[in-house]
From TrEMBL:
Pfam families: DUF4440
Organism ancestry: Eukaryota, Metazoa, Ecdysozoa, Nematoda, Chromadorea
Protein name in UniProt: DUF4440 domain-containing protein
DUF4440 domain sequence ranges: 20-125
Highest taxon of source: Eukaryota
Transmembrane portions of the chain: none
Signal peptide range: none
Amino acid sequence: MKPKFVSMIYLEAEAILKPMYDAMESTYDAGDLTKALNDYFHDDGVVVHKGVIVQYGKKSIIENFSKMAEEWGKVKFERKHQKYDGCDRLIFTTFDAIVDSSKKGKQKAKILQIFKKDDDGKWKLYHDEFEILK
């Protein structure tokens, strides 16, 4: 017998991710970038800064985002046109973002993220792909 595909509707995916985004951003806003990344990134996570660099694993991701934090300063994110889709173990989201940086001003970005549900039932950011638009 073939397993049934279990589709996740938009509202279910949004209800899972919105509190995660809020908590991650709250931790970051409190000045703890490392904790935000440790708590919400998957151990085998991947970050793709399109056309610039790819990192694999939490250690590499934390090191690179720490370097970016020095270059960009304090950052606020505004998501627009966010779309969600998913199934029982993965949630996909795409959105446009306004990245408001204390050192670089406002920049636009396109973002694709994949969240994976671990065996312990917690959702973690598994793939974070972004492009800073010129």
